[in-house]
Structures are given as structure tokens and as C-alpha cells.
Amino acid sequence: MSDRLSRLFSRCKDKSRAALVGYLTAGDPDIATSEKLIMDLAGQVDVLEIGMPFSDPMADGPVIQAASERALAAGAHIKDVFAIASKVRAAHPDIGIILMGYANVPYTIGFESFAKQASDAGVDGVLIVDIPAEESYVCEEALQKHGLHRILLLSPTSSDMRIKLASEAASGFIYYVSLTGITGAEMGETTAVAKQVENIRKFSNLPICVGFGVKSAEQAKSVAAFADGVVVGSHFVSQIPDHLDNRDNMLTALHSAASSMRGAMEKSAV
User: Fold this and answer.
1) What is the dihedral of CA 55, 60, 64, 69, to 10 degrees?
2) Which of 60, 80, 124, 228 is catalytic?
3) What fold, for 4-268?
4) Is 140 a catalytic residue?
5) For the residues of 87-122, what is the DSSP string, one character each?
6) pLDDT(230) > 70
7) Considering 28, 30, 35, 49, which one is annotated as catalytic?
8) pLDDT of 183 higher than 60
């Protein structure tokens, strides 16, 4: 099992800051542009989440749903996900790379084949949102065989029993969903989120990253004060449809959004 994730979280801790975890869907708005966008984002985040496009992303809001639709319309395939991940790994040997998506994608090509190709591409772990801890047997053996961490989700409705189960099954880090609902919803006040993160720490020594609803630099700064990582997804993805008529402006907008988030989080560490 790669210890790249533990090393990067340790580096962030040494600098008294949270890790920035950034998400984009592979193939959005087209494969060539997606590669440029993801490569630029990789230069600013500590952990890169690459979304595997899927036709029915039920846990995602309209922003990321539309991203999958654009990617699939552009002909994006899982092989393109692996190809982009491989190029990112060659350019950024120290960042974490996570593949995020739905079980149908690895199931279609077989978990063994999926895990091997992901590992060969330099991926550190996977987050398959519709395979809960109770169903780990579906993919656990293949992921472990190829040294891939299994990132698991917890939410505000997770009981202590479920938190314990997920903590025992997860590796790499735990992704805490800050709200009930879909990606891109409004996070709101973070006091309750901080309390939930504190409760999860009673059951797990893994880093805890908080996402869903982080849309502003101020929110990122607030979450960074108590979490090990801040996950930004819909906010980054939203820069793409806003600039479909100009790819250069799209890249500039994404770079600026990521830079703003990172700058705010670094200030929170001062």
C-alpha cells in the first residue's frame, strides 16, 4: 500500500495547514481541455480527485451531473481517466491522486482490471460512493492487491456504529460529507460540522477531509481550521460551463479559483 497519502498529510500537518483536495471530472468539456485543466489543478492541490464520468451520478448535484454529461458526450472513457492520471503522476510525483465515481464503472471492466490499471497509472486510492463499508467484499481484495486505498464517506446522519465500521474498513483518509443531500448544496454554518469531525476522531486516526458545499475561500478557511483536508468540487467544476466559449478564460478562471482557496487555507495556518 502506497504511503504517499500519509506523507502528504504529514507535510501539511508540519506546516500547520489542511490539505487542499480538488475535484474535476475527466473528459469535461473535452478530453484535451480536461487534461490541461486537471494538470493545472494538480499544480495547486495536495490531493487530486479525478471524477470517472458516469451517466447516472445520483449523489451529485446539477453542476457535476452536467460535467459527466459533457464528458460522455465528448467520448470520454475510463481509459482516458487512467491516461490523464498517469500524466499527472509523471508531472507531480508527490501529490495524492484519487479516482472518484460509481461502482458501475469498475464493475463493467472488472474490479481486478480496474485496480491494476489504476495502480499502474499512479493512483493512490479510490472513492466509490455507492459501495458502502458493509459491501467492502465486492472490491476490497482487488484494491488491496494493487495497493490502492479505499476512501469511505461519512455524513451527518452516520451513527457511531457506522462511523466505527467505516473507520475500520477505510484507509488513506475519511471523506466527511458536511451536509445531507447532493454535491454543490449550501454548506451553511460550520460549527456542527466541526463537532461531527471531532466525534469521528474518537473512532479513527485517519485524516478527515471535509467536502460538499465548500464554494468560497472563507468557507475553505473555516473548514481548514478543524479538518485535515478541505474538498472542493462543484466550485471548481462550475468554472467550466461559465467559459465554454473560451478555453483560455476557462483555464484562467479555474487557476484563480484554486489559488484563492489555497491562499485562504494557508492564511488560516498562520
Assistant:
1) 10
2) 60
3) TIM Barrel (3.20.20)
4) no
5) HHHHH-TTSEEEEEE-THHHHHH-HHHHHHHHHHTT
6) yes
7) 49
8) no
